[in-house]
Amino acid sequence: MKVLVTGVKGQLGYDAVNELKLRGHEAVGVDIEEMDITDAASVNKVIKNVKPDAVIHCAAWTAVDAAEDNEEKVRQVNAKGTENIALACKSIDCKLLYISTDYIFNGCGDKPWLPDCEDYKPLNVYGQTKLEGEIAVSELLKKYFIVRIAWAFGKNGNNFIKTMLKLGKSHGTLKVVNDQIGTPTYTYDLARLLTDMIETDKYGIYHATNEGGYISWFDFAKEIFAQAGYFVNVIPVSTAEYGLSKAARPFNSRLDKSKLVENGFKPLPTWQNALKRYLKELGEYNAD
Description:
Elements: E1 2-6, H1 11-22, E2 26-30, H2 40-50, E3 54-57, H3 64-67, H4 71-92, E4 95-101, H5 125-140, E5 144-149, E6 152-153, H6 160-168, E7 173-177, E8 181-182, E9 185-186, H7 187-198, E10 204-207, E11 210-211, E12 215-216, H8 217-228, E13 233-237, H9 239-242, H10 258-262, E14 268-270, H11 271-282
Parallel strand pairs: 1-2, 1-3, 3-4, 4-5, 5-10, 6-9, 7-13, 11-14
Antiparallel strand pairs: 8-12
Helix pairs in contact: 1-7, 2-4, 4-5, 6-8, 8-11
């Protein structure tokens, strides 16, 4: 199978290309230099030249706070860019797998969001534009997967774990919010699931994060330092106490992943196990 992966320089795009190649697929990774997703002509040219059997669309504007001051730019990337890709996929009748986010919901309550729930009320520009991307995919295509994730971390790019490790080297005490609840997603594990998916025709909307239960960012930070062997005093604070960010954040990022098993897909390992493997990859895991 030939698969085109957008956003190859990012955390997930990088891992997706590697996993595809490991499975013997022909993976073609592109970033903005090779294909500007906001330019329909660029997208059409690349996709018609590559002629992929499937596209895994990872490229996105993910800087949540910066999105608030750049709404139209973000919409061009997350909504219009995704529409351009969907139209190009439709023209050659290939599968599309679109990566989305829990931010399409309002983040209220304490019940896990179901994949087929349509109670969409994004809290910020990032969530709204990712939802618009979802709508474009679902309205234009029949052969599509929409996979919503949360709290992603991987080898490429910045993430919460890298930030905590950096701060932990220079701070003995850190305040971390304890009222935003979800589950991390290791892009290495996710890439394996995405490859499983595109090898099938079990289309639809899915939620995919690591197993291991729902936690707060405070819980996550404590486990990061415990596994890395850092002696940092982590103090739990509310989002209000921590201070307002430019973009509102969801309190409830719990995603129900039962649909994966129902459709024969293997769930991701626990986030605790994923963290251990990731820290080993970074050379930060403390076995003692």
